[in-house]
């Protein structure tokens, strides 16, 4: 998403009645239909509905890290597609367990437990 279009509304590790456990990613509120861009190069390994995560795209990086793009209104990629930073992933929506349209971005090294993506975004020149 382009700077100025979104704002960070929830950070990794926050605890709230909104979630069954502490928050596992970063939430970026934006209008429905706002484009979502890839933050790193990888291969799309999943694109479909995933319960509380709503419409979710998973991009798997070369080292096995998974990037989850959740709550999309619609998809811009399909399983098997390769993406580079800046490529279209999909469009902001409000599917799944949400209070309004936003992107939930989650990072899972080795497809394991989620880690805070904030510093990694800064290192790659993305200001959350």
Automatic annotation (TrEMBL):
<protein>
    <submittedName>
        <fullName>M23 family metallopeptidase</fullName>
    </submittedName>
</protein>
<dbReference type="InterPro" id="IPR016047">
    <property type="entry name" value="M23ase_b-sheet_dom"/>
</dbReference>
<dbReference type="Pfam" id="PF01551">
    <property type="entry name" value="Peptidase_M23"/>
</dbReference>
<dbReference type="InterPro" id="IPR011055">
    <property type="entry name" value="Dup_hybrid_motif"/>
</dbReference>
<feature type="domain" description="M23ase beta-sheet core">
    <location>
        <begin position="22"/>
        <end position="117"/>
    </location>
</feature>
<dbReference type="GO" id="GO:0004222">
    <property type="term" value="F:metalloendopeptidase activity"/>
</dbReference>
<dbReference type="InterPro" id="IPR050570">
    <property type="entry name" value="Cell_wall_metabolism_enzyme"/>
</dbReference>
